[in-house]
Amino acid sequence: MEMTHFLERKLARRFRTFDSDNDGFIARNDFELSVTRMGAAFGHGSGSPELARLTELSLGLWAHLASVADADADGRITEQEYKSAFAAGLLVTSESFDAGYRPFLTAIMALVDEDGDGRITEDQQVRWTGALMDLAEADAKEVFRRLDVDGDGFITTEDLLEAIREYYFNDNPDSAGSWLLGSLDA
Ligand SMILES: [Ca+2]
Ligand SMILES: [Ca+2]
Ligand SMILES: [Ca+2]
Asked: pTM score, two decimals?
């Protein structure tokens, strides 16, 4: 896949959201940490089946990342390794996107959508993106505003899935998905 400057900036931003402990690398502990933060943010402890499911999928995501992106096999992934693997189509492609992302997003929503009505509020969006990806509150609110196209105060799993798809595969800087992780210059 062609690596445009815009895509490169988006992948750099995504890399930082994976790096939960901010040490400059993605490793297994980053996924353990983000899941722990999700549990704390939504009141799910070690006995929670929803948290167990998210843990399973998160560690599965890490295992997949490690197997395809950790080129030098040192147990951690650098930003360059991440970008190279994406460019080579080893991480997610527009064809594999739905199958790859829907289960993960569904597991996240099982914690976040506390009343189970299939839609989430701004406050829930702020909490989950803060816990899982350390997204700033102001950025999360801006993301929510852009995704709540009909302005009813709620967004759905489908809205999020479409935005994530755009984030990776739409090279238009004005697409709603471009804003999914806040400012690219931060
Ligand atoms: Ca890290
Ligand atoms: Ca490595
Ligand atoms: Ca809800």
From this structure: 0.91
